Amino acid sequence: MRAGVILPGNCRYAIVVSQVNSTYKWKQGVFQVKARFIPVIAVFLLIFGLVNGYIGWNGWEYLSSLFNLEHALPYGIIVGILSFSWILGRLGQHSASPIRQMAYSLKYFGSYWFAVMQYSLIILPLADLIVWLLTLASVEYKTAVASVGTVAFILLASILIRGAWNAWTPIVRTYKLTIPKQAGSFQKLRIGVASDIHLGTVVGNKHLERLVRHMEEMKPDLILLPGDVIDDSIDPFIRRNMAATMSKLKAPLGVYAVLGNHEYIGGHIEQYIAEMNAIGIRVLLDEKILIQDSFYIIGRKDLAARSSDPEGRLPISELTATVNKALPLIMMDHQPSDLEQAALNGIDLSLSGHTHRGQMAPNHLITRRIFELDWGYKLKGSLHAIVSSGFGSWGPPIRLGSRSEIIQVELEFKPEQ
């Protein structure tokens, strides 16, 4: 109802009834959508429970063989809590203290448990097969379980320890590239890139300080953050004052970021952008910035914007329609899903993340099939495409066949003669 317009009572009543009916239908629609997910959730929880039951049973067989344990209930409770700790932590992370702190702890330990689950499902079937073969060869069952179980435990522990080291010990990976264009007065440009920081319950200020330290040592002209700066909820970022640490990221030509799918999952886009703006980090939302009349930075919304953002996201052709393509074009696009269009529309350097290179081998075999380039460097026409495995981690802070990395891009501009 517009201000200054007076309607008869029956009209006002009709409008109110219409609004109530619309609200009811909307809520009913949401309920129906959620209701359709109930069977999916039920199947997931069943499979999840069976997997953890299998892991728990193997653990009990091993421990009881070593220590002659008889009462499984305390052990079962511990395994049950660990199995569902991430889910419980996720559900309770927005609660008031002290429940929130408990939820953070549950989510932290639950993240590690995901890695235990994955590698247990790789190791345990083989271990069980070996135990069965040993019993066929007349080896006592408890002896077989204790021996094979010890080897399996050492293998699993070694994987987790090495994986944690890979996740918490970042490396700087350098790419030296040449763009055949004039970039104003710039002959060279050093860019520091950190994708997929995933700040939240698991990755916090301590790991973020490592990023700051490496960037200070690198002394880049420009810092770019291609998405997933936060993990999902923005609450840990605010409550633990991570913005204060982020604000230490400095570069003469500025610090720029784009949205990743996890910013959309968290659903606090406006608040996140405000937090970044307050510390001098510009979040580009399908925008282009001309830096000192010399080169462009183009920042795309994440692919998730197609379904999560009412405005969607612009195609690369529209983003580049009004730029001067005689100047270098540097684009951040969180997911490396549009390299063909990037090459066709004159992008010189594309920077992405998202894939984590699978994070925990052999998951890289999946990302390799999904993306044209799931990690590393590729020259596609005149496009230099770089996909980072990311600085932080999603879920368990475990990396195997993958490293926590910061990208250093050394660009040289050499116009064709």
From TrEMBL:
Domain Calcineurin-like phosphoesterase, chain residue ranges per copy: 189-357
Domain of life, source organism: Bacteria
Organism listed in the record: Paenibacillus catalpae
SUPFAM superfamilies referenced in this protein's UniProt entry, alphabetically: Metallo-dependent phosphatases
Keywords: Membrane, Transmembrane, Transmembrane helix
Protein name: Calcineurin-like phosphoesterase domain-containing protein
Pfam family, one: Metallophos
InterPro entries, alphabetized: Calcineurin-like_PHP (IPR004843), Metallo-depent_PP-like (IPR029052), Metallophosphoesterase_sf (IPR051158)
Membrane-spanning ranges: 37-57, 72-91, 112-137, 143-165
Species classification: Bacteria, Bacillati, Bacillota, Bacilli, Bacillales
